[in-house]
């Protein structure tokens, strides 16, 4: 699902890093009160790596090993019981998805490490022209390169590519903890890229392996009217893996965006419980129906996938750079929509989520009712009633935790509250040395129009609407001015403040990478996360510069600089 950026112009400039807030003496009381009442946006350098982040990665490793080990253990148990049909299906749903993910992971390694080795070779050739001592260094680098290739090949052949990436993420996180200076995290991009790769690989593996495995084991249990301990353990591990990876994807995606507030671990736990119970109810309904109507179950799955894929395509998602890659991406998301909700489009999602869960509820009721009506004679009424109640209660609990997440734990604030909205708070230093801070507070009704507000400054600035002369002491005009809160409050610092200008000019650190591409809006990954050529540029600048580089797209939230330039020149 990697997108291309052919023809995209990437320019690297030295610029001042954005300041999070203006000086206390420059802020107005109203702005200070608003800033204290709303959540702050994450700084450009990213948040510090904490012990909770390390524990989260360790728990992800535990989920990964538990899911794979229980499936292999169950397959061996089927083989010892002479259930060769169930043994073959269980093993296929373990080996094939794992091989697909390993091939994709190794392909990423080949591309990344080949580019890195080529850059190192060029640097070694340049140093060799100036010094004879570079020969030994070049031989050592070649030996390390061969060892790394052998190590990665063996690792991926043993199906442990994700494990290495998790360990490497822990190592990079520890480095950022030990060597980071707090305000500028030099390991921010490397950690974000590694986390994004792991999340993409594990999410793909979860829906290729864990979801079919869960449906298969539940169908076997219902068909045999018995539950083996290993079957229950394998199904539970697959269900936890699915819920974990969906919540992990949302967290890493938000952490990687500088225009989105990060997700707390309380919100992540709520998302895990939400998906755990809704996917659980969904897969039990699938297993019940498949145990009686095998052929019709296949027809139902294909029909549901086609309808969901067409619905996603009609929504005009914007994830990939080409039309055909976008269609393939929508087809993959259609597979995810068989089991759970997955937001793929920017903007309010209440209506789309309500439609999806309404359809899911109707399908679950229909599938469960069909099984209850046409179940075999060996299934008692009491047992069938317990299973039906299990499906209903599981779906109800999942809906409850979904409401808990959106009403109390959403990163942007409660959906039903008055503080729900976005925030943009950036300090800009223009070419003339004038410091300004743009403090944009969006109301709930404006939260979904962030890009429109920022990219159209002449039409949204309140002061451009008043063409009359200001009359001192006019009560009507003063009352209108006080009742209309401006969208942008620009507080320029006077050039006569040498201390502030010296501190600002002395902190001119960190390059700015300007990408001539439109920004891929949330909930899709940015172009520099998808395109690995842009990654190479970012990581090279992060290694060679004093602080983390910043990204600016052609039209994005970072257009606030153009807004300030408009303010200072018009």
Can you put this structure into words, describing what you see?
The protein is mostly helical and 570 residues long. It has helices spanning 29-37, 51-80, 84-128, 134-157, 161-179, 188-224, 229-255, 265-290, 294-314, 323-336, 350-374, 381-409, 450-455, 457-460, 475-483, 498-506, 527-530, 532-544, 560-569, and strands at residues 10-14, 423-429, 435-441, 511-515, 550-553. Strands 1-4-5 form a three-stranded mixed sheet, with helices on one face. Strands 2-3 form a two-stranded antiparallel sheet.
Strand content: under 5%
- The average pLDDT score comes to 73
Taking the sheet with the most strands, its summary is: 3 strands, mixed
Order of the strands making up the biggest sheet:
1-4-5
- Rg on CA atoms, Å: 27 Å
Number of helices: 19
Global geometry? globular
Secondary-structure element string: EHHHHHHHHHHHHEEHHHHEHHEH
Report the span from N to C terminus.
44 Å
Unreliably modeled segments = 1-8, 15-44, 418-471, 479-508, 556-570
Helix content: 55-70%
Number of strands: 5
Structural class: mainly alpha
